[in-house]
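Notebook, student rotation project (T.W.).
Task set for the rotation: take a protein with a known small-molecule partner, predict the structure of the complex, and write up what can be learned from the model alone. Partner molecule chosen: magnesium ion. Sequence and SMILES entered below by T.W., checked by me.
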Amino acid sequence: MAKIVAIANQKGGVGKTTTAINLSSCLAHYGQETLLIDMDSQSNATSGLGMEKGKVKHTIYEVLLEKASIENILVPTEIDWLDLVPANVDLIGAEVELVGLSSRETRLKRALNGLGNLYKYILLDCPPSLGLLTVNSLTAAHSVIIPIQCEYYALEGLGQLMNTLRLVRENLNPRLQIEGALLTMFDGRVNLSSQVVEEVSKFFKQAVYQTKIPRNVRLAEAPGFGKPVILYSKDSKGAQSYLSLTREFLKRNGVE
Amino acid sequence: MAKIVAIANQKGGVGKTTTAINLSSCLAHYGQETLLIDMDSQSNATSGLGMEKGKVKHTIYEVLLEKASIENILVPTEIDWLDLVPANVDLIGAEVELVGLSSRETRLKRALNGLGNLYKYILLDCPPSLGLLTVNSLTAAHSVIIPIQCEYYALEGLGQLMNTLRLVRENLNPRLQIEGALLTMFDGRVNLSSQVVEEVSKFFKQAVYQTKIPRNVRLAEAPGFGKPVILYSKDSKGAQSYLSLTREFLKRNGVE
Ligand SMILES: Nc1ncnc2c1ncn2[C@@H]1O[C@H](COP(=O)(O)OP(=O)(O)OP(=O)(O)O)[C@@H](O)[C@H]1O
Ligand SMILES: Nc1ncnc2c1ncn2[C@@H]1O[C@H](COP(=O)(O)OP(=O)(O)OP(=O)(O)O)[C@@H](O)[C@H]1O
Ligand SMILES: [Mg+2]
Ligand SMILES: [Mg+2]
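Predicted structure of the complex:
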């Protein structure tokens, strides 16, 4: 049974998609069969891995409305051992359509049950909200990675996110753990960055990853070429930091 | 009758709240009576103007559910001529609760009708989604400012946003115009920034503001002190760029 990890934070622009694309690619790079599911109607994970929006035929939307199974719509990517379940604008309607349906929070969880041992890791890239698509992801997941931008507003939102995790754990998914808190866009020259690191370390203690993702322009350029940073600029600080994060992630999951 | 301007873009972290706080403060600085409404459950505009989360008694949530009027819940800020309608976590439930209610898209519009001539400008800080809170804002607004971060994913989302504006214009608010497209977090030393500027200028033509907001750490530090940048660091590039934007905004609205 694959380990299912949601990548979530309702604060916008904190590096959820950048982490989803680069952690999943690095896991594949280390030989771990990985599936990335794009749960965001912006479909940034889909295009960041090179899929053209117009070419996407089937998406997670159909799976949530039980019109297709995950096995039938997942597609290979340029990276060996990494497959993708794409997203597109159809997902915008999903939040409203799911509200009136039965077991609206557990549809993704049930769809993933059918995958068996195809993958070692399944990552879920969440949208910047605490709506039904994020709740579906947190309900299906064994654990959650929380990307935290080294800025003031990022700290503010943590209370709300922890509250949502508690509600999901109490009502929908008692097994939900914190996989880790990841500091992103860290800039050692800026006081604010160091202050946030200090606060986050107090809040999450040893759940914080030692690896901090630096602000690095290669990470922002790579999606424009539809490639993860290890293919776009493998010697960059951005690529090196995501390889280091992946080794830390694997170590926490008993893989040396 | 006040001019109502929504600040919207479903892409997360592009500078919506930073623009909402600093444009509204600079409008007040130039003597224009202004009201800022925080439509985001993250309530970043509320805390960025110095309101402590715990002290917020009444929010826009009650207005949307017709339990309070805007006049009764708006509060003054530290800045003369600037009032605020705060937000808090209650808004998370609003999206789901509104789905089943009558005239769910026009509640904000109707609530604003009651304000008469109290203000010259009313700004709406939208959350990073195209759900009912953003739709309410676009339905109530005369125009919309679109902050666009100078990064790849920011370009990707424009098509979806324009599509939503078209749907709102056709079904809910035929008067909705584009007030302007604002380039944010611009860094002249980075190729990517200049490429995005070029693409955005082609897309929006003269709707793009001449003023580009540079990446400037004072803009990221100011919310930690609960102050707009013109109070926190008035000689910074960040403050100067928002003052320049405000002069451009006023010029487009016939105020020299
Ligand atoms: N470490 C980094 N250094 C530089 N740029 C980065 C870094 N991480 C992410 N970015 C850029 O910052 C922007 C926001 O990142 P990203 O889109 O991954 O965040 P997100 O949390 O997924 O956003 P959303 O809330 O919209 O889903 C993107 O343009 C991305 O390319
Ligand atoms: N020009 C700038 N220079 C430096 N930092 C900035 C600038 N504009 C915004 N920021 C910082 O970038 C982060 C994102 O900005 P902001 O929160 O205003 O975006 P947003 O679009 O409102 O996000 P959300 O989608 O979560 O509502 C914040 O930490 C903010 O302080
Ligand atoms: Mg994303
Ligand atoms: Mg905001």
